[in-house]
Write a structure and sequence with these properties.
The chain is built from 2 helices and 2 strands. It has a two-stranded antiparallel ribbon. Strand 1 and strand 2 form a beta hairpin. The protein is flat, with a radius of gyration of 32 Å.
Length: 120
């Protein structure tokens, strides 16, 4: 039996045919991994949350200097970590408000277009 010939510069990914006429055994199939479950998602979220809290704790411990803050007539004396956290939370709330406004606007536009399509 002759081996198949291939054009110049190409190769075959198939194994050579057996010489004794027997069919080679199939390779074993990989074991299926268990699917994603809600509990595994909760576990992952709890681990990530705990790691985040550890980072926050280290941040607060390292930034204990007090700072004076004056904003809109309020004069506060806070630790640097708390002041930075308040600034970060304020920024996140502003971002969430802008995102909520945009989503509401897009839903209103989609509803208007859907009503126009149904009316015609």
């Amino acid at each position: 039996m002759t081996s198949p010939s291939y054009p110049e510069g190409t190769t075959s990914t198939l194994p050579p045919p057996p010489t004794n006429g027997q069919i080679p055994p199939e390779p074993p199939k990989p074991q299926a991994r268990p699917g994603h479950t809600r509990i595994s998602g909760i576990r992952t979220a709890l681990i990530a949350g705990t790691a985040g809290l550890i980072v926050v704790l280290i941040f607060v411990i390292q930034n204990t200097q007090t700072v004076n803050i004056s904003f809109l007539g309020a004069h506060l004396r806070l630790s640097l970590a708390v002041a930075l956290f308040l600034a970060a939370i304020s920024g996140a709330l502003l971002m969430a408000a802008a995102g909520t406004a945009r989503i509401t606007e897009l839903r209103r536009i989609m509803r208007r277009n859907r009503n126009k399509a149904q009316a015609s």
